[in-house]
Amino acid sequence: MENKCSSHEECGGSAEKKSCEHGEHETKTGSCCLVQHSVDMWTCAGHRAWKEVHVDILKAKILKAWGPQMEKTADAVIEAMGIEWKAMLAQGKAKADLKQNISSIFMESKR
Fold it and tell me: Model pTM greater than 0.85?
């Protein structure tokens, strides 16, 4: 089985006009006929499913081998992001306060 899983070809599509063994011509979707399109779709789905199984197995093994370290790293990242977020909020408040103060100063000078 050929792996056609990439971009438009992922669904068995092709830019070329051609006839298939069933005597039908290529449709706008890029398949030469419904039968071939179905075969291509199932083949592609099979390749994708196999890849997902590989990914799931590797995820489990990575978590088993590196999980505790990754958890600690994730905690450190979350902590740093929280500090950055609080700093951005403080900076935003400082800018808003500055605007308010300058506005008040201008209002006082108009009196």
Answer: no
